Amino acid sequence: MENDKSKINSFVDLLVWQKAHTMFNMVCDDVDTFPSKRVAWVITDQLLRSVGSISANIAEGFGSGYQQEFIHALRIARRENSESLNWFYKCQDRKLIGDSRFKEYASLSEEIRLMLNSLISKLINSKK
Question: Which of 24, 29, 66, 123 has a 20 to 30 Å separation from 58 between CA atoms?
Answer without folding.
Answer: 29
